[in-house]
Amino acid sequence: MSDLLPQLVQQLFNGLSLGAIYALIAIGYTMVYGIIGMINFAHGEIYMIGAYVGLVTLSAIGVQGGLPIGIVVLLMLLVAALVTGFYGYAVDQLAYKPLRGSPRLIPLISAIGMSIFLQNWVALGQGARDMAVPALVPGAFSFRLGGDFEVFVPYARVLVIVVTVALMAALTLYIRHSRMGRASRACSQDMHMANLLGIDTNRVISFTFVLGAMLAAVGGVLIALAVGKLNPFIGFIAGIKAFTAAVLGGIGSIPGAMLGGVILGVAETLAAAYISSEYKDIVAFTLLVLILLVRPTGLLGKPEVEKV
Amino acid sequence: MSALRARLGPALIAALMSVVLIAPIFGLKLQRVGARTVLAPHWDFVLWGALAVFAWQLLRPAAALATGGLRLPTLPEFSARRHPLVLALILLLAFAWPFFAGRSAVDIATLVMIYVMLGLGLNIVVGFAGLLDLGFVGFYATGAYTFAMLYHWAGWSFWEALPLAGAISAFFGFILGFPVLRLRGDYLAIVTLGFGEIIRLLLVNLTDWTGGPDGISGLPKPTVLGLPMTRSPLVEGGTTFHQFFGLEFDTMHMVIALYLMALLLALITLLVSNRLIRMPIGRAWEALREDEIACRSLGMNPMRIKLSAFTLGAMFAGFGGAFFAARQGIVNPESFTFIESALILSIVVLGGMGSQLGVILAAIVLIVLPELAREFSEYRMLVFGLVLVLMMIWRPQGLLPVKRRHVQVDEGAAREGAAR
């Protein structure tokens, strides 16, 4: 009986690290949605590309390159964020920008097309099979809370949580205090008005795509390190989950995306542990449906006023 | 020349950017050597890619100028009087197709017909009623598994199971639609996507009933006039199709029969949806799509209208699914992934939302093109994705946009009237 609490702590920790990844991806969805009102379906693929670029960087440096692990991880994150930033920009310019102002379905189809394209782009370039990622951050520490059960905490998962929390804090500060952050908040309230007041809305939109892509890339690199393998199709399911997280928290709201990601991650791991691992995705989607039924705008979303 | 020079800078930037984009994916290939992962550089890919982007950016205005006069070919216009004639010709061609085309061509045509059915079904939901449904494949799967399970557990034949497959899919549509249709636009999209995934995951995990990831195999092909189209009778003392008609046994007969059944089912779907849109309920769908608030204030019940569209769309997906299962002889969850939903949705949007002829044309294009490109199977999906993006940019209204019946004031007369 006394093992119940430590087991719960273990699952909460696992869920938290998974949720952190969802939150990182979800922010990209929610920011893009908040500003131009479209579901960027290709965002999950950006996350996958981030993971690949991280692995390429790691292979270029070499696992036993002599550099301290911290520097290697930092380099991976930086290069991945840089390259995917370009991807985010290019995807917006090529696939979405020509479609601004058209009915909602049009950019959605374009985004689905882009998502299929990017999956196969990477599958062609780097092969469609699983790629092993060397365990760069090995080891774990464990502790006991009373009973016999040891709570097992791998350092790679700790890294996920630490980096995510740091980035979230930085992002919140940036959105709240910087010029660009203010401009993007203005745009998400009223694009036309912001434009009239002299904000370069095109720049804000590009910025949103780039920032979202960079955060997703960080998520991709971190998960690649924590899980130890990747393939070109990991982006799809992660993307859907992250979007679910964004909707759960209230789409358009950045704190909502963080909260939604964590709730989804924890719910999923708890379901996998206490019900059955096969049913974790079902639990995730059922949770989404239930929350939307009770609160159609998500947990932290503002109700949208319908205007005639 | 100065215009060209002005484009030099941006073109250079674009080329540099494409280096950054291409290098980590195509330029530096990950390779496993023993237990280590190493990089194999292929700089020629990167170089050619960057050069292509550079040239394209530099010459784009010139290219636009040169092709400015070119237009995508449009279908010839037919006067209303000729419509029945054109329709009869197309029908004749469709029915004659299997008798002079090869086996694989008829097979592909059968697949096209299944997607026409699915496209027309989703067209009711997305095109007519304007409800964004990303989980349509769930109902397709429901139909397919209804037949498969009825056969597997109760020995029902295809024709016995077909109505029930449609009914159960419609019932699922009704049950799922009930709670979610209160949601707006994108929320609806993501919840339907979630439902599609839930259905697929249930099919994978309810191993005792659905056979899990392996699915259910050994499904019989549909019978023709109650006669099985096999070499020897299924039951002792039965008659097969070729025996009854005194024909030589030929597997091609089955292929042709399947195609004709698919054609018939697709035609029924077309007829029904064509009538539905002219009925009060169809008008209500379109009204709701155009303006929900106005509809509500006119005393219409949006919930009921949406639910009917959702249910009917699901029903056609169920028919399509049952037929698909019978044609394949096997069902497994692999056939019902999100990519399938995306494909059906693309058919509807590419055809021109709400346009039935457009849906048919788009189904032909989107199914036949990838089949023709089988040899380039590696590039197939890459190109498919690209085509979706490019079509949305060049022709967002779809291949054959709907022409609404409307009255237009003669411009000349209107101007005169205004001047007077």
Describe this structure in words.
The complex is a heterodimer of chains A (308) and B (420). With 308 residues, chain A is mainly alpha-helical. Chain A has eleven helices and four strands; from the N terminus they run H-H-H-H-E-E-E-H-H-H-H-E-H-H-H. Chain A has helices at residues 4-36, 43-61, 69-96, 105-126, 155-177, 179-189, 191-196, 201-227, 234-249, 254-274, 280-294; strands at residues 131-132, 140-144, 150-154, 229-230. Chain A has a two-stranded antiparallel sheet. In chain A, strands 2-3 form a two-stranded antiparallel ribbon. In chain A, strand 2 and strand 3 form a beta hairpin. The longest helix of chain A is centred in the first third of the chain and has 33 residues, at 4-36. The relative contact order of chain A is 0.21. The model of chain A has no long low-confidence stretch (mean pLDDT 87). With 420 residues, chain B is mainly α. Chain B has two domains: 2-63, no CATH class; 86-394, ABC transporter involved in vitamin B12 uptake, BtuC (Orthogonal Bundle). Helix content of chain B is 70%, strand content 4%. Chain B is built from 17 helices and four strands. Chain B has helices at 2-27, 43-66, 83-100, 103-128, 136-154, 158-180, 185-205, 207-210, 241-244, 251-276, 280-290, 292-297, 302-328, 338-351, 356-372, 377-394, 411-419; strands at residues 28-33, 36-41, 216-217, 330-331. Chain B has a two-stranded antiparallel ribbon with strand order 1-2. Chain B has a two-stranded antiparallel ribbon with strand order 3-4. In chain B, a hairpin with a 2-residue loop joins strand 1 and strand 2 (36-41).
